[in-house]
Amino acid sequence: MLGYICRRLLYMTPILFGVSVVIFLLLHLVPGDPARLVAGIDATKEDVEIVRTSLGLDRPLPVQYVSWLGNVFRGDLGRSARTHRPVTHELRLTIPATVELTISAIAIAVLIGVAAGIVAAVRRNSAFDYSSMIVALLGVCTPSFWLGLMLMLLFAVKLDLLPTTGRGGWENLVLPAVTLGAGAAAIIARVTRSSMLEVLGTDYIRTAHAKGLSERAVVLRHAVKNALIPVITVIGLEFGYLLAGAVVTETVFAYPGVGRLLVEAIEFRDYPVIQGALLLLALQFALVNLVVDVLYACSDPRISYE
Amino acid sequence: MNSLPKPESHKRAAPATAEVLRAVPAPVRESRSLWSDARVRLMRNPVALAGGGVVILLILVAILAPYIAPYDPLHQDLANSMAGPSMTHLAGTDVHGRDIFSRIIYGTRISLRIGFLGMLLGCVVGVTLGLVSGYYGGRLDTFIMRLLDVQLAFPGLLVAICIIAIIGPGLENVILAVGIFSVPLFARVTRGQVLTLKEQEFILAARMMGAQDGRIMLTHLLPNAVAPILVLCTLRIATAILTAASLSFLGLGAQPPIPEWGAMLSDGRAYLSIAPHVATTPGLAILITVLAFNLLGDGLRDALDPRLKA
């Protein structure tokens, strides 16, 4: 197993190298002087020159990349052009909010999605099956920013049950987490249902029924275990996509996370922060994918580690 | 024993049976092409037909927008700001007093344009890369696939945001962003098809007849790989429309006063408590459009490859 994890890490290395090159080049691909972009629009000519020399922007591109990567490994992502604070400081302030939001969202998505998928498959062609799958289809197609606004309109404006924006207690987390998790719940429900239907049609389930086991025991002890193997992959992938989805949800609810920081940085053309936020989100995505692969290998003994 | 037919009577019956067989056509299934089969299956799928019907309706609305929109989508009437739905303004007006219904109608043009052009860009580049990568294999294949893996290392929307961070906001840039973001999927689907097809005998025969690589790829491989690509095209239009709306909502896509649905929704969120209709209607338009393309795409997938039917 350890060997498998090492091989997956080795496979990730060139991809992460590519990601770092893209993020490094971002500053150089933008039309205009990179030193001016880092120093900020309102910086004086002298400030721009100081930035150029201090960041080594007058050196050849490969040298700049090696130096930038070295700084990244030391945890130095530069300073924000807007606040002049270190980018790592800005990220440290926002990471907990994003982690809190995405974990809550995936928890909601898994609870609702898996439960709905199992019940829909067990009660195939029932009213619950049809209605839950229609809701799931609508969930996949609904823009999250619109769903967020509609939930805000209902629960915050009309019913006055929950706060509209900001971060604080659990009550601030409910609407953003439901908004972010709704699409993932819909996809997880659809995959769980189809996986359960496949498993429920197999011989060993028929054998379990023939042994006289109750429906509950057959479903919970025998069917769900195997049906959840492909669902784990989808949950992992969805968790990764939630990191990107958080950009939109955090903007809707003015939630102070990495996503909102990224959007604000783009608005103000704050490139060091854009690079830092993108790097962080890409690293998280890669890490989540790695964990999913390992979990998948652990949950299904048929998967070879070789 | 008596029930057994006598050999003589059997001999006499034989010519009569042969005549009957000649007269009645054999119940052999009429041979149909993949596309005819798919068309029949699609026509029997009411959900996919409904999706296709809405897509056709949306295309008509986009084409006929100047004739069916009751007002100029950019005309401001500040005295009538944020008026609720009425017979004069079917979906009400926005903060600048612009007719929301007319803006939704014109927004159909913009969303479909982004969806189709974004998909087309992703399809052309992705299919080309997939064809070349799958056909030549080796180091070129590894290089192209690793390059696309780098893009896949970012979640979809982040790729689009990253591109917008480089080239700046705007409608044309959004098309470019959603197009680039679709490239890896088209490339992977095409490559997968090519890897299966290129080992088949008809490709070997074409090669033996001296056909050039380009000709083999375009006239033999591509037409046989087109079914899953077509399905992906339909589904990617929905994704492109949704992504573009998300970018516009974030202020990174279409800029005011363009009547793009995501931007309209973004404008309306500040007035959610006093004029909820401003944000509600564009969201419904996005939902219906994305749903229609997804239903059509799912129907096409089921029709072209029934084995994949959920």
In short:
The complex is a heterodimer of chains A (306) and B (310). Chain A is an all-alpha fold. Chain A is 78% helix and 0% strand.
- Based on secondary structure, the structural category of chain A is mainly alpha
Shape of chain A: flat
Instruction: Please give the domain count of chain A.
Output: 2
Low-confidence stretches of chain B: 1-14
What's the CATH H-level superfamily name of the largest domain in chain A? MetI-like
Cα-based radius of gyration of chain B, to the nearest Å: 28 Å
Provide the helix percentage of chain A.
Answer: over 70%
| Distance between the ends of chain B | 55 Å
CATH topology of the largest domain in chain A: the name is MetI-like fold
Share of helix among residues of chain B?
Answer: over 70%
Quaternary class: heterodimer
Task: Sketch the topology of chain B as an H/E string, one letter per element.
Answer: HHHHHHHHHHHH
The DSSP helix count of chain B reads 12
Give the structural class of chain B. mainly alpha
Please report the total strand number of chain A as a whole number: 0
Percent of residues in β-strands of chain B:
under 5%
Strand content of chain A: under 5%
* Chain-averaged pLDDT of chain A: 87
